[in-house]
């Protein structure tokens, strides 16, 4: 049953020709049928319990952007302090060579999905041919049906890529609301290492729905440092999915900063499938106005002596709503796992809401696990201390709030980048200086 | 400079200050002593503007203004400074950043120009030298992991930097070793000025050998029960607070 939302998108899919082999047509056909059958997850879907899709399901978005290749984009939007080249830019889901910088780097291929679908689609099969059997994965299915472009990055075994690679996803204004899809693939070869920034930005005011799906594979002993900066305009809708699988001794270091978008959902699924693989993550969402952010983390330990260390912070002010679901599953046989998750949240207003659900499932032996979640308010003693030194109530609140968020990014070694994020977060915190000592009313 | 009249303060339904009066003129140093729980910190907190303290009677005037009308940050900009008995640790907020933000916030409020980072650092270095504080503390988060003595010295360092007109030191001497005590006293004495006043809350006569007060008051049962010059501190040291109660009884008889 296709809703008002799905109807035009699926119609577009049935009429478009598919590049790539027969297998791809089959994969897309399957995802299409699944969507037609199940539609968007409804009110009884556990995974979407706190993020109702009712309102979205009634909206209509144009499928993709025919003018994506020629839209003017403010160059300033693409910049990120401390990050230079290489840079891959996608506008409303399409690659823009004219805005990108692709120096040739030994040991790494910086390509695009559209290019690879033309030239060598079979290399993508392992990534694109996924069942997505769960009806909750509607956006992954939709992405499979419609995504035609995205970054494809492959690092050769043993290569250490020095420069930070910058991926920029831009939502650009159009005369209608668009639904754009982006499929990104990152494969880091045996013993290789890569540092990557996934950066979401956009022009103020647009209300597109972006659906960005990244798949990451780290081969044995590989390392990826991934920084995700979600700095979209506060009118945008954004659904993101990050799937990572780690082979033995692989290491994924993730920092995730969630500051923008009106409505956003991020599914982060990490599988520790190789012995001694390790996942470390620091994340934060900071919300205000009527922002809605739902972060759903699923970590699966399926091999021996694997570890994860997760620290996530959430801030909600005004009438915003934040959701953090942190699930860790230690599968049978994944003995010796070490799983640590801490989620602390700050509620800055009576009308804001935060839901946190830590879930821990252990089916193995000799597992060390610690799981904790709290929701609290700013410390009155600290507020008074700062005010007694001259800071206004608003300044004191933003300073303490920023300090609370900093665990997500204070370990970034690139100082210019770290300071940029600090300034970005401060800018996004709504509690600004106000001589009357009153906080600004919600917008 | 400061005139407190018949102040009654209630916390959580409990009357803590019960008719406290005190006048402090510019240039003076007043010491306040008194038993645990007498309300000394309460007085400091009320002066600095902490929430949760209900003033049910009386008044506080500071430089002719009704102090109770002002927000804590307005009091700070007007020159009121409280060195906390228990300074708060604030993880994630850099000490230097905080101090510059505080100083500039005060200056903005007073209509003065803000200090840029060069001017600010120059001022920091001057003041650090007086207190023999390690530079390294400035790069840490506010009070985080500071030893008890370091926290107290950091309070005095902040005072030196912010140059208030009325400084209230709440047991700044508690927990200090003898060298640190001298440094703190040096820091205070270096700031003594005809235009500046101090209220020094302490349990120990020793501090008052270094910071010589013009007046010593005893705060007990929520009010000032005895005032005198510095010799009063010596008598208290010798006889304890019960001596005052007995003397009162004798006087009444
Ligand atoms: N928030 C509060 N709630 C309830 N009672 C309080 C609160 N704050 C202070 N009090 C009480 O008020 C009284 C005075 O406390 P205050 O801290 O002013 O004493 P003090 O004279 O500074 O003592 P000390 O010498 O031990 O520092 C005490 O009995 C204390 O328990
Ligand atoms: Mg006290």
From TrEMBL, chain A:
- Where does the SUF system FeS cluster assembly SufBD N-terminal domain lie? 23-165
Its signal peptide is: none
For biological process, the GO terms are:
iron-sulfur cluster assembly
The name this protein goes by in its record: Iron-regulated ABC transporter permease protein SufD
What family does this chain come from, according to its entry? Answer: Belongs to the iron-sulfur cluster assembly SufBD family.
InterPro entries given in the database record = Fe-S_cluster_assembly_SufBD (IPR055346), SUF_FeS_clus_asmbl_SufBD_core (IPR000825), SUF_FeS_clus_asmbl_SufBD_sf (IPR037284), SUF_FeS_clus_asmbl_SufD (IPR011542), SufBD_N (IPR045595)
* Domain of life, per lineage: Bacteria
Q: Which residues form the SUF system FeS cluster assembly SufBD core domain?
A: 178-404
Which Pfam families does UniProt cross-reference here?
Answer: SUFBD_core, SufBD_N
TrEMBL record, chain B:
Could you tell me one molecular function GO term of this UniProt entry? ATP binding
**What keywords would UniProt list here?**
ATP-binding, Nucleotide-binding
Q: Out of the domains of life, which is the source?
A: Bacteria
What Pfam family is a match for this entry?
ABC_tran
**UniProt entry tagged with the keyword Nucleotide-binding:** yes
Provide GO CC annotations from the record. cytoplasm
InterPro entries documented for this protein = AAA+_ATPase, ABC_transporter-like_ATP-bd, FeS-cluster_ATPase_SufC, P-loop_NTPase
In terms of SMART domains, this protein maps to: AAA
User: What range(s) does the ABC transporter domain occupy?
Assistant: 2-246
User: What protein family does this chain belong to?
Assistant: Belongs to the ABC transporter superfamily. Ycf16 family.
The record's PANTHER family line, in alphabetical order, gives: ABC TRANSPORTER I FAMILY MEMBER 6, CHLOROPLASTIC
Q: Which NCBIfam families is this protein grouped with?
A: sufC
Q: What is this protein called?
A: Iron-regulated ABC transporter ATPase subunit SufC
Protein source organism: Dokdonella immobilis
């Amino acid at each position: 049953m296709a809703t008002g939302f799905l109807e035009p998108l699926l119609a577009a899919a049935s009429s478009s020709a598919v590049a790539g082999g027969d297998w791809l047509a089959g994969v897309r056909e399957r995802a299409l049928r699944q969507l037609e059958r199940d539609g968007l997850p409804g009110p009884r879907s556990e995974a979407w319990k706190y993020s109702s899709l009712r309102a979205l399901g009634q909206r209509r978005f144009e499928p993709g952007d025919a003018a994506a290749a020629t839209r003017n984009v403010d160059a300033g939007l693409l910049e990120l302090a401390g990050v230079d080249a290489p840079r891959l830019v996608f506008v409303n889901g399409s690659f823009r060579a004219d805005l990108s910088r692709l120096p040739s780097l030994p040991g790494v291929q910086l390509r695009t999905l559209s290019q690879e679908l033309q030239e060598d689609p079979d290399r993508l099969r392992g990534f694109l041919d996924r069942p997505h059997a769960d009806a909750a994965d509607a956006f992954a299915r939709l992405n499979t049906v419609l995504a035609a472009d995205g970054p494809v990055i492959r690092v050769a075994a043993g290569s250490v890529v020095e420069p930070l690679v910058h991926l920029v996803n831009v939502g650009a204004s159009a005369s209608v609301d668009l639904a754009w899809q982006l499929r990104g693939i990152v494969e880091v070869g045996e013993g290789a290492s890569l540092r990557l920034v996934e950066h979401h930005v956009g022009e103020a005011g647009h209300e597109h729905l972006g659906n960005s799906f990244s798949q990451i594979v780290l081969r044995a002993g590989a390392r990826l440092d991934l920084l995700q900066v979600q700095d979209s305009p506060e009118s945008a809708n954004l659904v993101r999915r990050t799937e990572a699988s780690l082979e033995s001794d692989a290491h994924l270091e993730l920092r995730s900063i969630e500051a923008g978008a009106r409505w956003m959902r991020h599914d982060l699924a990490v599988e520790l499938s190789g012995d001694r693989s390790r996942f470390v993550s620091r994340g934060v969402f900071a919300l205000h106005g009527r922002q809605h952010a739902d972060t759903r983390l699923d970590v699966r330990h399926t091999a021996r002596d694997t570890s994860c260390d997760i620290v996530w912070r959430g801030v909600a002010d005004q009438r915003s709503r934040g959701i953090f679901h942190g699930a860790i599953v230690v599968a049978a046989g994944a003995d010796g796992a070490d799983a640590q998750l801490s989620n602390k949240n700050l509620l800055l207003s009576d009308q804001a809401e935060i839901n946190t659900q830590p879930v821990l499932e252990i089916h193995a032996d000799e597992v060390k696990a610690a799981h904790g979640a709290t929701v609290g308010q700013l410390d009155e003693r600290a507020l008074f201390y700062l005010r007694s030194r001259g800071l206004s109530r608003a300044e004191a609140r933003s300073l303490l709030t920023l300090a609370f968020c900093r665990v997500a990014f204070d370990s970034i070694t690139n100082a210019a980048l770290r300071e940029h994020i600090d300034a970005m977060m401060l800018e996004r915190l709504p509690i600004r200086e106000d001589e009357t000592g009153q906080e600004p009313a919600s917008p | 400079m400061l005139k407190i009249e018949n102040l009654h303060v209630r916390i959580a339904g409990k009357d803590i200050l019960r008719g406290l009066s005190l006048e402090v003129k510019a240039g003076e140093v007043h010491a306040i002593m008194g038993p645990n729980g007498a309300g000394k910190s309460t007085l400091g907190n009320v002066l600095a503007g902490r929430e949760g303290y209900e003033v049910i009677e009386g008044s506080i005037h500071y430089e002719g203004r009704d102090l109770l009308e002002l927000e804590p940050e307005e009091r700070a900009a007007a020159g009121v400074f409280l060195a906390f008995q228990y300074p708060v640790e604030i993880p994630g907020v850099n000490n230097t950043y905080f101090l510059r933000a505080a100083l500039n916030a005060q200056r903005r409020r007073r209509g003065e120009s803000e200090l840029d980072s060069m001017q600010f650092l120059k001022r920091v270095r001057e003041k650090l030298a007086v207190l023999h504080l390690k530079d390294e503390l400035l790069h840490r988060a506010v009070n985080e992991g500071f030893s008890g003595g370091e926290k107290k010295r950091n309070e005095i360092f902040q005072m030196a930097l912010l140059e208030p007109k009325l400084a209230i030191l709440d047991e700044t001497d508690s927990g200090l070793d003898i060298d640190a005590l001298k440094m703190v006293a040096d820091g205070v004495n270096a700031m003594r000025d005809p235009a500046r006043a101090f209220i020094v809350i302490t349990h120990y006569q020793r501090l008052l050998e270094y910071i010589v007060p013009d007046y010593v008051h005893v705060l007990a049962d929520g009010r000032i029960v005895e005032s005198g010059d510095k010799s009063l501190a010596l008598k208290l040291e010798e006889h304890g607070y019960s001596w005052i109660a007995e003397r009162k009884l004798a006087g009444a008889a």
